[in-house]
Amino acid sequence: VDEYPKKKKPWTIKLDMEYVSKLLGEKIPATSAKKILTSLGFAAKGNEKQLEVEVPTFRLDALTQEDLIEEIGRIYGYEKIRPIAPLIPVTSPKINEKRTFERNLKNILAANGFSEVLNYAFYGQDDAGFSGSDHFELEMPPSPQHAFLRTSLVPNFLRNVAENLKRDKELHIFELGKIFLPVGETLPAEKTILMGAMVFDKKNSPKERADKRTESGFFQAKSIVDNILLQLGIADQYFDNFKADAIEFPNSFWHESRSSEIKIEGSGKSFGFLGEINPLVLGQFGISARVVMFEFDAEKLLEISQQEREYLPIGKYPVVTRDISMIAQKNVRIDDILKVIQSVGGDIVRDVDLFDAIDFADNTSSFAFHLILGADDRTLTGNEIDGVMNSIMDKLESTLAVKMRK
Fold first, then answer.
1. How far apart are the C-alpha atoms of 216 and 205, rounded to whole Å?
2. What's the pLDDT tens digit per position in 253-267?
3. 60-74, 198-212, 336-350, 386-400: the lowest-pLDDT one
4. Minimum mean pLDDT among 161-170, 182-191, 307-316, 377-386: which range?
5. Phi/psi at 263 (nearest 5 deg)?
6. What pLDDT does 395 receive?
7. In sequence order, what are the beta bridge partners of 320?
């Protein structure tokens, strides 16, 4: 029985011969194309530019020009088509500034002895409690330890520290990852955060243990952070007192007196944080060593970093190094001392380095600095140097109530 309720009529396809050559990559004459199609049961007529091809009803698969071109290429022989490289303009791809910056940032951290860690973007109920903010909860979490989108890198980071300290005494790790901040009931706001953690080996000699710079690790970490920022082209940062509302988690997470916001000179805009973790929090992660961590908003880092470096000629005139030492009260910050030295010394003070810091039992501290002095247009005389040093010491005594050690 042959049931054919609606008879199919032949249909016509207009075949552009220029398109045939473009698609196959080979110049096919219209006469050759007509001969091939006719041999396959098609009826073709037309000129060198275009053919009108009538498709037989038994070729229900031939509906478009591409279907006919496939038949022409198959019979003509794909092996006869010569491979020709496409002619396209060769241009450099558009630079993705964010990706390039992040790659450069990772290279700088690796050059400073840091190893990269990669953590899940989720954590459990216990870790969510540390962050002290609302979270987006997954409807079907893979496990209870991965039920919430993280709003901080710190909890997972401390677990990394705890695991690595089982094998190593010193540790330098970093992660460049996203946090997810809830905004109403919509999708979370994503923010890229750079976080690093440092653990320094305990010092054995009495002098090293008494040195304030190495006793806690905070000042060692500060030096490393300064160097990283300098390599990013950021040199006008300063360290200010920490305020709890500057980050997303409670102040109790951090050490009360060993934490600092990092700001830009002039604008006072905060873009990072450096501090020790509270020993009570470390105990909950099974960590007995002191851990110093830094955190930066990666987008703000990109915004203030300088891609161009300015090179200056080597000075023609010699510089002089002088040392000053002082006893300061507990409330005097090193940054306060540096600001006084730079304000009084001006351009003559080329650099200031802290090389000794010791805490005493009576809540005072001893600080000692190297001062490098010089001028671009002349050699400083002894009287000029003595005058600048005396002015600096007088200003320190009158402003910060320090006692100079002479």
1. 15
2. 777 767 888 888 777
3. 198-212
4. 307-316
5. -125, 165
6. 92
7. 373
